[in-house]
Amino acid sequence: xxxxxxxxxxxxxxxxxxxxxxxxxxxxxxxxxxxxxxxxxxxxxxxxxxxxxxxxxxxxxxxxxxxxxxxxxxxxxxxxxxxxxxxxxxxxxxxxxxxxxxxxxxxxxxxxxxxxxxxxxxxxxxxxxxxxxxxxxxxxxxxxxxxxxxxxxxxxxxxxxxxxxxxxxxxxxxxxxxxxxxxxxx
Length: 186
Description:
By secondary structure, this protein is α/β, with parallel strands linked by helices.
């Protein structure tokens, strides 16, 4: 979870929700990018603006699966691919969600967040919501680079009725918390 003292903000980075793009735009180096959900509220950051980005859970799952199957960004992703996925199909991945959800890319989005975050942006309107973040931290609007983009088809093409429903049930808390109820219908 990157903390940017220059802009007095804390970004809760949820895997596969444009976090590296956001960090790059804010000038936070990759060495400071982590997926920690622990926030130590010291007196100098207690009043910092907190924000995150979320993503439609069906789309995020496809993105995470394809990202890991394509090798990820580092040796840890390669190890996780072997440990959690092997050579399974996307359908097999969905059917095994209970067994693989401890892997960071498959965790609930809510897992990465405290109870309250000042602003929750959506991947589906990334630039528009990033502009809101820029306004809040006093930056002129920055065109958000799209880095770490996965290579895959439209996420809906990966699902059948059964796998769509499994994701709806497994990620129901995220779907409700972040307003993705309109996506329930396959």
